[in-house]
Amino acid sequence: MTLKPLSSKQDAQQRAEQIRYFQAELSELENENILSLDKPQLEFINNYHKTVLASLHVEHDIDISTTDIQLSLGMKIASFLAALGLSASIFFLFFNFWGGYTTEVQVAILIVTPMILLSLTFWLSRLESTSYYSKIAGLLSLSAFILNLFMIGQIFNITPTPNALFVWAVFATLLAYAIDARMLLGMGIIFFSMFLSAKFGTWSGMYWIGFGERPENFLPAAFLLFGISFIPHARFWGFGSIYRVFAMILFFMPVLILSNWGYISYLEMDNKSIEMLYQSLGFIFSGVAIYIGIKKNLREVTTTGNIFFTIFLYTKFYDWWWDIMPKYLFFLLVGLSAVLILMVLKRYKRNSNETL
Amino acid sequence: MKLFSIAFVILVITNIFVFIGIDFNRSGEPTSCITLSERELRLPYRSDDENSGISLHVGYRIFSKSSKNQLPYHTHPNWLNYESLKGLGFDVDEHLNAKYKKSTLAKEVFTVLEYDGETYQKSLTYRTEEFTKAEVLYTQNKDDKRLKDRYEDAKDELKREKLYNTRLFAIDTGLEYNELRKKYSDFDKYLIVKALVTLVDRDYCEDKTKVTGYLKNLSITQIHIPLPHKKELETLKSEWNIEPRYSVKLNYGQRFEPWVLEVNRF
Question: What ipTM did this prediction achieve?
Fold first, then answer.
């Protein structure tokens, strides 16, 4: 029997879930005497499903039962905490002992440590069927590289430069793709956004460290990341979502800030007009995000759009009503508006189901 | 394998570039060479048991009296005026004529720090004069508690100025190191380092449409002490109103980044 190959872990996990739901529904139909398969047919189907699940588990390391899913979630949390704890430990370990070493020894430790951890990451990625340990090692090697440049900067009193952000971004992104690690991709995106924003800032004539003083510096990174998110990432589960979520955060956070503090915008307009402009952009784009998310079945886009639409809406309510009405009335209106949104969404859902 | 190899190469190449930069900074003649005391290079205010390294904080002041009632120690000197800000590349006219004022963004420029020079003497003279004025008033009316407090404060300020406060004063800024060094050629007395400057509207200016410059901070505010020199300092704790206990000889290199040559205990 030749099994149909699946290109990505996401497809494999969906197939496994499809099989579980089929088995659950078949059991339900049998209990209600709607359908009853004879024993050879049932055995044949069960054996086929067992073969498929075993093959998917070996090839893509997916969860094939509810217990697996729950354990996987626990393992993910544990590996995240392990990576954070060990990374922090590396920093504090070095801080604790570096003063007792000569400059040559300090430099040697700083340069060699990320190399050793990178080699360990490579070795682990080849060794284990599950990737938790290699992801921890990957995050540790990024931490060690950050420590490497940061501490050499301290030891030799080097003037801060945004180029360090760029090399950290490239390193993190390479490792993310090498070991399929979404957290490393997130770190790479953060560093890259900071680098690009700093560069846009310097092109406008400011010193790079002040890039956060003009939130519009983050918008080019937002658009670039949103574009990248539509490059197919079939082999890398969740990478497209990560790009989209970060792109939306990098867009909506500056818009939210500028909708309240127009003073720090590049735009040559009065502050009130700038704030109104960005408030409008906030509402329009969050609405567009919700629409695109629903249409293209991009759950993270819909959710992020919803979150920011809500923030913009309630910020507006606060601006209009907080000072002019008693608190109980303000919160009553907030609650009623939420009920109204719920009714609208429910009606939309009903219409959508009727269409089906 | 390919991605790991590229990551490894990035580690190696980045460190190579960093050390090329360090080597370049320390090559050739230093751009500044000076010996400062504890008054100018302070130990960390709080001791950190988790950090065994020591970095000294570069302390400097500005002395500039723009008007009669204004205190002379602040971060927006009158020599950072319209002309000098234009010279630093700020579009001052655009800022003054802008319909909608914006917070201006900082630029990195060179600043001249004078050590134990004319500006310090002016500061000392100012404190002496303030003390003399307070002493005369107090002598004439010893029952006035307010005058007594002012006299005591002035006495403390004079003592601090003579013995404890930093003698490093920012006196000028510019875009070109060589031009500033021609003007301030004494290496023992003038440090030329990088700093951040921005421009602000000041309410206290007599002409309220004027702008002034604001010296935010030096680009490098902390100087790391390597192990051989650290031993001279590791038993010391940061203290404020004491006479200096050490001196540090520094060089600043081609990239205006400092390194320590000597540390001497007094």
Answer: 0.89
